């Protein structure tokens, strides 16, 4: 299985995997995923006695075929209704000083009972556990492997914040903030299935909601402002185009293209708009937006050499100076010449890792891309892209393998990272070969509602529009506005 499937298993385990098939006899749904069926005779079971029985844990699952996934589980001291595994309510738990077993299951298609199970094998400390992973379809194991689990908490030695203060926080009602764009004194927050929410920022310490554009059967993921036009990326209707001549009242004009496509990310370079569309065709849409409210399609660009069936799909786009930078998941980050945007040409790529988000900017007289993966062990790579045919990594920044970067922004000589459960991280890259953290804010709290369902949670997007504030979205806390307190 390829890198794309790692992402699939991590994010959509309850849906995409429901089609797996196995033994058609539903009377034995547990079988190979029962605790008795998992051989732990070679394990160091006595080491499990000190494992903490509660909390939010991230899992790194390594399957026997060489593939894997990052996932999550939520444990509690008692009451199975609060426990979860792989995004599903746990249906069985066994925990003694010398054993740990947790399972969850759901009904997939064709009456197939899918069951996930983890059995502890050893522990090196209260917040770490290794063991055996299985997934069964009607009792037959169709995935086998091992796992490592780490209980999430604040990084050792860190306070709540350093060099950053929280100016305001707005929790959305029954909605998840997925991204934010700021212009004309307003914040435009994409809220997933709840559409677009507009906030008046006259007083950034007290953002005031002034409008919500409701959705039916769609999901908003990204936003970008071009003058008096707002572009919003969606999962089902491409790019929604809004008129924001009155900034408080976005008026939806149209969507492009006029078909059901998923758009994950938007980028603007001059009068050209780029949209990363991972599905259904794994392509980048290119639009002329000389008239911002009327995008004219110039090209549907398929990055040369990428194999969508192998998970090599465009997840994110950045653009600057006639170059297009595409995060193509397992294909890596590619650089294309778009001086003629109707005819993009691949110039080079950085293939040493999964690429999920990239920011681009000048440091000194050279162009750098700041590229991040989205997985267990993901980190920031500082890439010299001034000679795209030979992209060179000059530096790296990482916190810890069990927490993943979600998005990247660049301003001045700093990179701003939405680093999942490690919150906001501000990294000075004025010396590109030696990135230095200069500020952070730990936004994630174990007790916040909704945690422990998926690996990718916490701070999700970061936006630095140059007005003196840093805007971010968080899977639980909503819209957060920060200010740096040190230079």
TrEMBL record:
Answer whether the UniProt record assigns the keyword Zinc-finger to this protein: no
InterPro entries reported in the protein's UniProt record: LVIVD, WD40/YVTN_repeat-like_dom_sf
Q: Which residues form the signal peptide?
A: 1-18
Enumerate the Gene3D superfamilies for this protein. YVTN repeat-like/Quinoprotein amine dehydrogenase (2.130.10.10)
Superkingdom? Bacteria
Question: Would I find Signal among this entry's keywords?
Answer: yes
Q: Which SUPFAM superfamilies match?
A: Putative isomerase YbhE
| The protein's name in its UniProt record | Lipoprotein
Q: Which Pfam families match?
A: LVIVD
| Keywords of this entry | Lipoprotein, Signal
């Amino acid at each position: 299985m390829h890198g794309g499937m790692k992402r699939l298993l991590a994010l959509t385990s309850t849906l995409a995997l429901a089609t797996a098939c196995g033994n058609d006899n539903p009377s034995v749904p547990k079988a190979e995923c029962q605790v008795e069926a998992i051989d732990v005779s070679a394990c160091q079971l006595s080491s499990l006695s000190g494992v903490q029985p509660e909390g939010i844990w991230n899992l790194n699952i390594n399957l026997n075929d060489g593939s894997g996934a990052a996932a999550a589980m939520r444990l509690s001291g008692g009451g199975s209704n609060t426990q979860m595994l792989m995004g599903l309510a746990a249906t069985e738990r066994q925990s003694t000083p010398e054993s740990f077993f947790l399972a969850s299951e759901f009904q997939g298609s064709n009456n197939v009972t899918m069951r996930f199970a983890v059995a502890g094998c050893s522990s090196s400390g209260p917040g770490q556990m290794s063991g055996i992973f299985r997934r069964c379809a009607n009792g037959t194991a169709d995935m086998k492997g091992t796992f490592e689990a780490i209980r999430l908490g604040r990084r050792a030695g860190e306070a709540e914040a350093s060099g950053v203060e929280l100016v305001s926080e707005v929790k959305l009602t029954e909605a998840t903030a997925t991204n934010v764009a700021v212009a004309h004194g307003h914040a435009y927050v994409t809220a997933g299935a709840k559409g677009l929410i507009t906030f008046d920022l006259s007083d950034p310490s007290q953002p005031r909601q002034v409008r919500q554009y409701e959705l039916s059967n769609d999901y908003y993921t990204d936003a970008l402002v071009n003058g008096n036009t707002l572009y919003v990326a969606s999962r089902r209707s491409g790019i929604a185009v809004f008129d924001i001549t009155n900034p408080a009242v976005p008026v939806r004009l149209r969507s492009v293209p006029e078909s059901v496509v998923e758009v994950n990310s938007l980028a603007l370079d001059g009068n050209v708009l780029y949209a990363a569309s991972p599905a259904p065709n794994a392509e980048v849409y290119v639009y002329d937006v000389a008239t911002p409210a009327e995008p004219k399609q110039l090209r549907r660009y398929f990055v040369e050499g990428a194999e969508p069936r192998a998970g090599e799909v465009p997840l994110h786009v950045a653009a600057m100076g006639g170059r297009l930078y595409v995060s193509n998941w397992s294909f890596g980050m590619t650089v294309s010449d778009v001086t003629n945007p109707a005819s993009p040409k691949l110039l080079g790529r950085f293939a040493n890792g999964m690429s999920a988000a990239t920011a681009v900017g000048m440091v000194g007289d050279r162009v750098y891309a700041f590229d991040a993966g989205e997985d267990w062990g993901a980190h920031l790579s500082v890439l010299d892209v001034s000679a795209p045919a030979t992209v060179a990594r000059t530096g790296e920044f990482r916190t810890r393998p069990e927490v993943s970067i979600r998005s990247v922004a660049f301003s001045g000589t700093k990179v701003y990272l939405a680093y999942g459960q490690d919150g906001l991280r501000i990294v000075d890259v004025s010396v590109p070969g030696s990135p230095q953290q200069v500020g952070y804010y730990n936004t994630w709290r174990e007790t916040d509602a909704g945690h422990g369902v998926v690996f990718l949670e916490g701070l999700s997007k970061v936006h630095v529009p140059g007005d003196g504030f840093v805007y971010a979205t968080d899977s639980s806390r909503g819209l957060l506005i920060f200010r740096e307190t040190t230079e």
